[in-house]
Design a protein that fits this description.
The protein is of the alpha+beta class. Helix content is about 25%, strand content about 35%. The chain has four helices and eight strands, in the order ββααβββαβαββ. The protein starts with a strand and ends with a strand.
């Protein structure tokens, strides 16, 4: 667990998710699903249950190449990051992450702190040698954030997103550890 002071002066706590967080995480996901078209899911599309969310969290705890972080302000979940490496031996060293922050907390440094924690964890893991991500081509703020941490563009998948009657490509980015 680490604490940081944000640009607004509030303290954010970043820690590993625990099974007891499952219900609050489901509420968080339901809220953010309405706040951005850059997510891979629409409002109401994910049918998460407490038991499913608990099993996802537990899987991360029982694995040396998976990580599930949450960011809290005064006990409220305001952000999360999940990283998943492969179970296959040949691919175990690499994985992909997803990140989200409640809209009212954008531009306060929460995503930066979550990514920083991911990179530190990966470096100390002795296993993770590559962190990958996908980002919608028009999500300039996210792309610039990832570049700030050294992620480079490695490819593009055309028409991977379909939002409000329009197709968008996905940029593949990676960081070697």
């Amino acid at each position: 667990m680490k604490e940081y002071i944000l640009s607004n002066g509030k303290k954010v706590v970043i820690r590993k998710a625990e099974k007891k967080d499952a219900e609050e995480l489901i509420k968080f996901i339901n809220i953010i699903s309405y706040e951005s078209d850059f997510l891979t899911f629409e409002p109401g599309e994910l049918k998460l249950t407490k038991e499913l969310e608990e099993s996802i969290i537990e899987e991360c705890y029982n694995s040396d190449n998976k990580l599930f972080l949450i960011a809290e302000i005064e006990g409220e979940i305001v952000g999360n990051l999940s990283f998943k490496g492969s179970n296959r031996r040949r691919l175990k060293h690499a994985g992909e992450f997803g990140i989200s922050v409640k809209k009212e907390y954008w531009n306060m440094g929460i995503a930066s702190q979550l990514i920083k924690e991911l990179i530190e964890w990966a470096k100390s893991s002795g296993i993770i040698k590559k962190i990958n991500l996908k980002v919608r081509e028009d999500n300039e703020r996210a792309i610039n954030l990832y570049r700030k941490f050294g992620f480079i563009e490695e490819g593009k998948i055309s028409k991977e997103f379909y939002v409000n009657g329009k197709y968008y490509s996905t940029i593949l980015m990676g960081l070697e550890i």
